[in-house]
Amino acid sequence: MSQTKYDMTGIDIAWCPGCGNFAILKTLKQTLYSLEIPSQDLVMVSGIGQAAKTPQYMKCHYFNGLHGRALPVATGIKAANPQLKVVVESGDGCMYGEGGNHFLHAVRRNPDITCLVHNNMIYGLTKGQASPTSATGIQTPVQVQGNHPRPFNPVSVALSLGATFVARAFSGDIEKTSKIMSAALQHRGFALVDIFQPCVTFNKVNTYQWFKKNTYYLPDDHNTKDLSAAFKVAMETDRFGLGILYQGSEEETFEDATCGSKDDIAPWQRKRDMKKVENLVASYSL
């Protein structure tokens, strides 16, 4: 395999210098290469935002959808062709704000997809208003008197809805983040990796230094099969635990439950009567 199979050297990347997105992009490419996942078998799906540009900087299939709508598209792609490796990648605003309802039900449905969320605790694309994960009290150009709501806790929500893989990572640590990504990509079922990622332009509070000070890695003896222990870590607010919080037993996936046929033929393999398809399309024509 070529070391550059996912590379797009020479492409102008539209992120601010120092943005944590660069490290996540690099980490993901290295991880996919190490797992020997062929680029032709990979589909990246994203919504709108700075993080959502990530698939545009990789040599693979990708789909950029509407703001917050990445997960239902990814679920459909995986259902149509379960042999594909499907990865969803977007920011905290896109995934937990506009896409919050889709996030809830994707966890419930348990499609076999990996969900990587660039969590910079701010809306970076639209110049710095508070996002669902912004801290209470943080001042922005929009929340000039301070952000009022409590921040959304994605890992505790995912755990409460029965997600079988829930993890946190930090873009500033490529080696450990790669190990977490690798485990998520190999897990069968919905896998959430919430990645802390500094926004160097619009978030002057949650900086690289802040994340280093306010995070810690889970100890080696953390039991990833213990849901109660995972909840305890998820609910901590003084410092945030990094690593795999929970990895339960693999369960029946969405495509297992709903997309098989009596002959076990995947939807993309089934023969279609194209004449019927043409007639259906024609019936909607003016």
Order of helices and strands: HEEHEHHEHEHEHEHEHH
CATH topology group: Rossmann fold
Return Rg in Å. Answer: 19 Å
- Residue stretches low in confidence (pLDDT < 50, at least 5 long) are none
The strand count comes to: 8
Q: Can you say what the CATH homologous superfamily is?
A: Thiamin diphosphate (ThDP)-binding fold, Pyr/PP domains
Summarize the structure.
This protein is 32% helix and 16% strand.
Describe the protein's architecture and organization:
The protein has 286 residues and is α/β, with parallel strands linked by helices. 32% of the residues lie in helices and 16% in strands. It has 10 helices and 8 strands. The chain has an 8-stranded mixed beta sheet with strand order 2-1-3-4-6-5-8-7, sandwiched between helices. Strand 5, helix 6 (174-186) and strand 6 (191-196) form a beta-alpha-beta unit. Helix 1 (20-34) crosses helix 6, helix 3 (92-98) packs across helix 4 (100-109) and helix 5 runs antiparallel to helix 8 (227-234). The longest helix is centred in the first third of the chain and has 15 residues, at 20-34. The model has no long low-confidence stretch (mean pLDDT 91).
